[in-house]
Structure formats: C-alpha cells, structure tokens
Input
Amino acid sequence: MHMNHNCFVLRTTPHPFSPACLVFLAIVLAAHHSPAQQAEQKPVPAGKGSYADGPPLKDPKFAAKYLKQPFIHPSQAGRPVPTNDWWTHLVMNGPGGRLWANPALVKFDDYGVQVSYPTSWNTARGEKGSGVNVSSPLEIRLAGSPVNQPPAPKGTAPVDGLKTSVLNWGDWTVVVRQEQEKGHWDVTFGHGLPFIWVECAGSQPSLRGKSLEVQDLKGAALSGGPAAALIVKVDGQPYGIFGPAGMSVRSTADSVDIKFPDPAKGWIAVGMLPDPSMAPLLKSAAGAIPRDSIYTWKYDPAKGTVTTTFELKTEALRKDAGKPLQGWIPHHFRTVSNDIKTVGTPYVSPRGPLRLAEGQVFNLEYSFPRLLPFYPAPKVIAQEKNPYDPARMSGYLQSLDGARTNKPPANDT
Output
C-alpha cells in the first residue's frame, strides 16, 4: 500500500482478487478471531488447492500490522476500505503524511489541515530533475487556538487537538473528519479538484501561514468585514477563499479568522490559484461540493473501443453555485476521444499540465482492438539476426529467482 505522488490515476475499486482486497480480507478475518484462534491456521480446501482460514499471526510484526485499527470513522464500520489508494496512508497511519491530490497537496496534523500546491518544476538537478516546487502551506486551524502549536509527542494525545478519521470516499474523492468535544469539520477533496472544502459544525476556522496578505478579488488590501470571497497570500502564493453569503473575516499579521453568519455551521472552499485572474472562475464553482465520485466503463467489441465515464455528484452550498470543475492531465487527451472543454490557466503537476473543465459527467473513448490472452511459446529461428536463446532466457529467470530470496527485484511495480 505505497503512495506515489506522481500518480494521477482515476480508478474504481480494486479487482476482488487484488492484493488490496486480500489485505482487507486479512483485516476482517483478524477482527473476528481471538489471538489463540488466529495463531492456528487451518487449510480450507478449494478445488485442487486450498487457502488458510486466517492470516499467519504467529509472526509478531505481521500481527501488529494486521490487528492495527485503521483511522476510519465509526459510521463506516464494516465497509470495505481501499488499501492501495492515494489516501491510504491516512487510513493506516493517521495524520502526518502528505496526500497528493493534484493540484492540491494536503496534510493533516493534530490541530487541523495544511494545504499547498505545486508552483513550478524543480530543475536544480538538470535533466534528472527532482520533482516540483510547492507553495508555502496555508494552515486551517480552530479559531482562538495558539499560533505555531507544536505536534504532540508520539504516542500521546494532543492537548486541545483534533481526532482525525476518514469519513467517506468515492472513486477519486475522500472526506476526512477532524473533531473534538466542541464540534468538528469535514474536509472534502480529490484528484483533479481545484478546491478543498471545509464544512464546519460548532467550530470557526482560522487561516494561518507565513507572511500573510489578505485581498479582495480585485487585489485591494482587506483587513476585515463582510467577505464571501477573498484572496489570501501565503509567502506570496495566492489561495482563493470562498464561503457562504454573510461570511466575514478579521485579519491580523498572524491569522485570518473566519466568522460564519450561523455560528453553529458554515463552510469554506480553499481554491488553488496558479493565477489570481482565475479567482472569479473558482468563485462560481466553489459552492458545488462533490458528495460522490463515480467511475464506470463500457466495452464495445464491435467498435473496438472502451468508454470511461467520470461523474461527480454534487450539492449546491450556495444558491448561485455554478458548475463543478474537474482537472485533467495530458494522458486524458492523448490518443483518446473526449468531450472535455478546458477553461482557465493550467496547473503545474508531476504528470504535466493539469487543465480544468466545467461539468459533472465526462466521457473518454479509447481504442481497444482486442488483446491476446497469451503469446505462443518462443521458437529458435536460426536465420534471424538475434535468434531466441533458451539457455540465455533460463539464466535470466534463475538470476531473478535468486534475487527474490534477498530482496524484491523492484520496489515500484
């Protein structure tokens, strides 16, 4: 269950016999047996083979991993959890890891959430490169909390901190709840979405960051008062902040405190702004929050095509909410027919320019002229310039088999 921030793959649930589902099955089995029962594996016949009735928990390291409780909200108890998704680190390890949702980079901690986004390629290593340069993070904290709170020591509960768990998820979106006794907020974000939404219940957010500047959408300085749309710069990098009608702000050198018209509930959408001129476009879409993301596909054997459909199911948080925005990277345009009409300035991403399009349903059609289930056994054809050599192939396979006893032949497969 590794995460690769260079990947931007919109996919549905894993195949039922994938390693991800087997890991989930092991967790379920472990949860339904006592330690004594788990230690005694018994074979279960299956045709000419068999499988174990439970995971091999005699190994303490294995047992610690598989008996660990995931960071899943209690309301999702019993629901199969993806174990190889881009947000899996949060499920298995809790807050602390970086979640690459492209264009957003999201990191949860004990006191809230940090948001940043790639701004340029890092060319310091010449042709080899070393990834992307990322903006200074915008921190979303509880209003009234101290500035620059240190993290709690490992293994201890933070004082006045937030409990973090995964509340819900779709095929490329996820909702994370952070809560304490006084209230909670739910953070919604996903691949290709230019926002993270923070829906508050019994809590008011405060924005923090390095060298804060606050402006209206026209670039004029803003110190406070009614503002349902504004720009907050963190160390010079702009973020769009959008909320309900009647929202107001109060800014100081260290924070931008948000006040909702209804103290019991409210929301903000933090938009990534590669160009401040995109603020009006994002303002229109900010009120359309995704409640689910669904990926489906259909194969047409006669045409030799596969059509993939991406659907965002949204809810309007404001009466004047416009169409949602979804981002797409170069491989969604290469050798594919689609109905994507891009708008705005492209974002920087590890997979190339990410372009936005308005809409809820997108269709991409790929050519798929069929696939051989297997290839015939190779033959030695002497007249070829470089004929197949059985002895050489045998040597390759034996060396690979020998390498497996020491370490995997590759770390990212």
Q: What stands out?
A: Residues 121 and 132 are 4 Å apart (CA to CA). Confidence is low (pLDDT under 50) at residues 1-33.
